[in-house]
Write a structure and sequence with these properties.
By secondary structure, this protein is mainly α. 77% of the residues lie in helices and 0% in strands. Helix 3 crosses helix 7. It is elongated and about 90 Å long.
Length: 285
Amino acid sequence: MDKKSILALIFCAGIFAAGFASNGNVTLFFNVAGLLIVLGGTLGATIASFHISRLGYVLKVVRTSYRSRVKTPEEIVEILVDLSVKSKLRGLHTLAEDEAETSIMFLRRALGFVVDNYAREQTREILHTEMSYFKHRRDESERVLRVMADICPAIGLAGSVVGLIGMLAGVEDTSVVLSMIPIALTSTLYGVLFANFLLLPMAARVRDITNHELLLQKIIIEGVLAIQTEQSPRVLEMKLKSFLTPASREGRLVSLTRIKERFQIKDREPENELRLAPENLGPEL
């Protein structure tokens, strides 16, 4: 998560906690027995519903969703346009260098297909298959989190029933009744909190990150296929900008100065200067 999101989350959590502390006795909302009932029941029901290896994968997906920085569509478009220009200047085989440098696994694999001279339709089919199963795996992770969110309130209600049974059993003993009331009330509270303030937000986060990464993968597929067919960098830029919001389409990505700096091209290299001519990069350079 970015710093602004973290600060906003901390601020909202502080306001939420202040509501609990407003009565001056926060300890009323803490009960170990109720917490154990909700946590143990939810985890047990989840393990009974899904294979333990899938739960490990879900944990990894959630951790990645919150900790990893995902590139923006603008950054991906810029990278692909630069790669297109580089392929024009030095040939498709030089993209192997960028295959090793890029931190995006999907883009790295796509460039590998181009360098290995896969047919265009083969590249498209493999990448679409990978994108489809990536979405399927993420959908499964989101489903696990939503199932856990459905289980939590029910387990909390079960904890409340346990507390009520204890109260009825010790109706003649005031101390027993008083000890059972916190379990009856806090169990439902914990179930609702875990479901709506932890598990459902995690599921929504996974969905949001998944949609963002699917958009990046679509951009990469279109860009790599265009590079493979040696499409003009200018045409490629206009095509890929269709994925961006209107506010992000301002300016031109193909800049001779930036390209020379990125690929360390000297002005005294006649051959490269010829290849950098506007007519080789596309119209309206």
